[in-house]
Design a protein that fits this description.
Blueprint lengths: L2 H14 L1 H17 L4 H13 L3 H10 L5 H37 L4 H8 L6 E10 H14 L4 E6 L6 H16 L2 E7 L4 H9 L6 E5 L17 E5 L3 E5 L17 E2 L1 E6 L2 H13 L25 E8 L7 H12 L3 E5 L3 E2 L2 H12 L3 E7 L5 H16 L3 E5 L3 E2 L3 E4 L3 E5 L3 E2 H6 L2 E7 L1 H15 L2 E4 L1 H5 L3 H11 L6
Parallel strand pairs: 2-3, 3-4, 7-14, 10-12, 11-17, 12-13
Antiparallel strand pairs: 1-8, 1-9, 2-5, 5-6, 6-8, 9-18, 10-15, 13-19, 15-16, 16-18
Helix pairs in contact: 2-3, 3-4, 5-6, 6-11, 7-8, 11-12, 13-17
């Protein structure tokens, strides 16, 4: 084709290119409006699309669309709930008794357990043994011992599982146990653990039942924003782990290591393990793995004698949840706290509801303390977080900047009576987008231990005041505000 023949086509495209682009923009914006989202999110996404031509559309494709598998997951959740319906009704009187006992111990804070029961997230349980684990040094010591002692089953669900020193140790143990006849099931997030996914796909002779959660393929790119952020391990249906610590060497601190990682997990024994087992079962049934019968030695109502006295439940949420349950549980606890609230999070991008609840609590005389890392592993999130700190500082919330290393713990303590330890960051992603879980623990001894750890961490933190926030360079504050506009993406 000669240049003279191409020129009219090029001229036509240059003159009318905006028509299909306009149709595309109108279509996308109409779709956002029809979804009936939170008005703030709706406006934020429309502004991103308008003021970032083309790039805004790309960002919305990857980060803004609603999870297209929501309907499918809701059907799965409903089906699994129906399978547990009969047992739930049978246990109702016992659950009411447990909630009453917890209420006598911690008062209005027990409403968090009421939420779990009403929404059928978790049955409240009593007499559990709970152990606070600080950093990978403590968690991995117990985890390796428990894995080595497994006799029936090992269920693991992790966002990050890296093939470093600890990853190889765990994987070797899993292979050995599988060879011995222990049922080993492993789920990892395909986005968080790409190297392990590739490695396991090559292990054709492995007896480990392995599945990648929400595999990222060309046809599923629009769903790549939705990730399984949980860190769960259930051993023999008797011992459970949950918290912020992934399977990675970065969580193990030593004298030679430069980058210190501060994190928290909890080891649980008792009736509550049944709830963690059911949570794993729900996740497993959302993979291509063959379903298994929970009654075949995976649940235990007897033979779980412990020396513990803790009330324990689990709040789990996913993109198909009827509500942001982890945020709702926190809001209840914040509203019921009478004297002290201590929160740790690596990422603070709060919902309007959470921000307002913290401000109201501080304004009503409750001592509210928030600890975030001084230096983050995400430049954008770090600056966006700073923009959200100013309203808290203006209303009396104490903000501490942890400076010993990177603070990755996701914990909350209320009145030295109730504690949360889980995978949930105080950000929009954890509340609305990711698969998350948190252990809610009613036990004064455990809560006081978690509170003491918070005080120890304060020794490695700087108190930020409104004056120090305002004294930061103007360009940094401007950058904070700019990054804040990207909050829906973060």
């Amino acid at each position: 084709m000669h240049l003279e023949e191409i020129k009219p086509i090029v001229d036509f495209i240059l003159q009318w290119y905006w028509v299909p682009l306009l149709v595309l923009y109108v279509g996308v914006i109409s779709a956002i409006l029809i979804e009936n989202r939170n008005p703030t999110k709706t406006v934020a996404w429309i502004l991103v699309i308008i003021f970032l031509p083309i790039l805004g559309l790309i960002l919305y494709y990857f980060f803004g669309q609603k999870f297209v598998k929501v309907k499918k997951i809701k059907r799965i959740n409903k089906k699994l709930a129906l399978r547990l319906e009969k047992k739930w009704k049978e246990l109702d009187p016992l659950m009411e008794s447990f909630i009453q006992d917890i209420h006598e111990e911690i008062g209005g804070l027990s409403k968090v357990f009421r939420l779990m029961k009403t929404e059928r997230l978790s049955s409240p349980t009593l007499d559990n043994e709970v152990q606070l684990l600080i950093n990978g040094e403590e968690k991995f010591k117990y985890l390796l011992e428990d894995l080595a002692a497994a006799r029936h089953s090992i269920h693991m669900e992790y966002y990050i599982f890296e093939l470093g020193t600890i990853g190889r140790q765990v994987l070797n143990l899993l292979n050995r146990k599988a060879e011995e006849g222990v049922k080993v099931r492993l789920i990892v997030d395909s986005f968080g653990s790409p190297d392990l996914v590739k490695y396991m796909c090559k292990q054709k002779d492995s007896k480990i039942e392995f599945h990648a959660f929400l595999p990222v393929t060309f046809t599923s790119l629009a769903n790549s924003n939705y990730r399984n952020h949980r860190k769960i391990c259930v051993i023999d249906g008797m011992i459970g782990y949950v918290g912020g610590i992934n399977i990675s060497d970065r969580y193990i601190n030593s004298a030679e290591k430069k980058n210190y990682w501060r994190d928290t997990s909890v080891r649980v024994r008792g009736l509550a393990i049944n709830l963690l087992q059911i949570s794993f079962w729900n996740s497993w049934n959302q993979t291509d793995g063959e379903s298994f019968n929970l009654e075949e030695g995976y649940l235990h109502l007897k033979g779980l004698e412990t020396k513990g006295t803790a009330g324990v439940g689990f709040v789990s949420s996913d993109p198909a949840s009827l509500g942001p349950y982890n945020m709702e549980a926190l809001l209840i606890a914040i509203g019921e706290a009478n004297s002290k609230i201590q929160l740790c999070t690596p990422y603070y991008i709060p919902s309007e509801e959470l921000e307002r609840a913290l401000i109201i609590a501080a304004s009503s005389g409750v001592q509210v303390e928030l600890m975030v890392p001084k230096h983050s592993d995400s430049y954008l999130v770090h600056h966006a977080s700073y923009s959200f700190l100013k309203p808290l500082l203006e209303r009396g919330v104490k903000v501490y900047l942890y400076n010993k290393g990177f603070l990755h713990a996701k914990t909350a303590v209320f009145d030295d009576k109730l504690a949360f330890v889980g995978t949930v960051n105080l950000d929009i992603r954890s509340f609305y987008i990711n698969y998350e879980i948190a252990a809610v623990i009613s036990d004064p001894d455990f809560a006081k231990q978690a509170s003491r750890q918070f005080e120890l961490d304060k020794q490695h933190a700087e108190l930020m005041t409104l004056k120090t926030w305002k004294s930061r360079p103007a360009w940094k504050r401007a950058l904070d505000s700019l990054c804040r506009l990207l909050a829906p993406l973060l």
